Amino acid sequence: MAKRSRNKQDTRERIARMRAEQARRRRRRVRLASSAAVAVVIAVTAAIVLAVTGSSGAAGGTPSGLSLAPLSTLGALRPAPAQGAMGSEDVPVPAAAPLVGLATAATGQSVDQISCQTSEQTLFHIHAHLAIFVNGTPRQVPAAVGVPGPQAQETPNGPFIAAGTCFYWLHTHAPDGIIHIESPVQRTYTLGEFFDEWGQPLGPDRVGPATGRVVTLYNGKVYQGDPRNIPLTAHAQIQLDIGTPLIAPQPVTFPAGL
Fold first, then answer.
1. Cα 62 from chain centre
2. Could you tell me if residue 51 is inside a domain?
3. Whether residue 211 sits in one domain with residue 117
4. What letter does residue 75 receive in the DSSP assignment?
5. Which of 105, 213, 215, 254 is disulfide-compatible with 258, CB 3.0–4.6 A?
6. Residue 28: what are its φ and ψ, rounded to 5°?
7. What distance in Å separates the CA atoms of residue 105 and residue 102, rounded to the nearest whole number?
8. What is the span of the domain harbouring residue 12?
9. Mind listing the pLDDT tens digit for each residue in 13-63?
10. Whole-model pTM above 0.85?
């Protein structure tokens, strides 16, 4: 092969090698950029999940900042009575009278900046459970707290409040102690706000019409503070004992969908 031809061949091969190396580098840069983008998406997603679960409360979890003491600090506790029959939400309904009815409950006006709207708001949607004992005897939290003009729908396990004039962001559908937190904004709601909708007093020495020392249990521990400030977090198990004897906690199982 003539020298000139060999030079042309060498030049073509060198150009081909350069182009191949450039293509390899481009592919590597694309892979690195894609990996970085995926990492950013994962990090952002994780941050969002942590923010949501941290503010709403993980299932059965306890938010930080609460002053809680071990259950043992209360001494001997009376065992909880047998749970009642399953209600319309597949949660036991206490075989007892309501603590108090709905005569003083809110009828549509805003309460603690909580509105009553014609449909349920589910942008922020969690549930908590409230049990009440007065001198060792259970009391029901009635259905339709936070639902003016309630309309009941019959189910195989009893009535379920399916409609009403409007729904407050905190309300009950059945007398099983399940508090529905269904809000257009994500924030921490409190037990005191629920009682304000109910139109009943709540404090360290009173729960509705029942008076006496109030011991508050929160997720199996003793809450040290005003029960009004108890946060309604996801799957929180709250118990109010007014007077004595004190009753050991009996957590409920939240069925699927609650």
1. 11
2. yes
3. yes
4. -
5. 254
6. -65, -40
7. 5
8. 1-56
9. 554 554 555 545 545 544 544 444 433 333 333 333 333 333 333 344 677
10. no
